Amino acid sequence: MPAxxxxxxxxxxxxxxGFGLALRLGRAGVPVVIGSRDAERAAHTARRAAxxxxxVQCAGYDNARAVGEAECVxxxxxxxxxxEILTNLRSALRPGQLLIDATVPLAAAVSxxxxxxxxxxxxxxxxxxxxxxxxxxxxxxxxxxxxxxxLADLDAELDQDVLVCGDSRADKREAAQLIESIDGLRCVDxxxxxxxxxxxxxxxxxxxxxxxxxxxxxxxxTGLPGELWSQ
Length: 231
Fold this sequence. Notes:
The protein is of the alpha/beta class.
């Protein structure tokens, strides 16, 4: 799929996964807007991205302004901040926007082990997001199995699948178009948003696997057809 030329906002791009996504998307030609609770921190992160990827279109603002700059928002924040940030963004998010939630409810959010999950009343972080955003904001779950370290290493070649969950095929296709602008990532439709509870838990599994093998393993599904988004 061709790289979209519309900007994408990344809330939490000062974190490892969000920053890696900013670098990869920026290198693919996608204008990136970085959001943080601290506008100066966001601007600093944008400068870091510009140093790593010369010519990247990247700006940094406070979260509310960053959300207002794009039709697509990637939420990549620690689970302990997930509810608070969504509450604060409720007046900034608007109907029609696509929210790609990459948050994982790891036990590390409450000083537990990173290879364990927390129970979420709604079923998953993505389902919590859908409950909290304004009506008309479209929520898709994705990017839980992609290594933040590998994304940030621009010399590393990617060859893995991204598991995408959501209640609208069109919304998932739109998210896939953006994500697949990153070379080496292939998006797989994994069903309705309720399946996010399973996709999110794979992060904990991969943390355990990567700790054992000192690696940055991802997920690759076999036996799928060549064209996954034609229907």
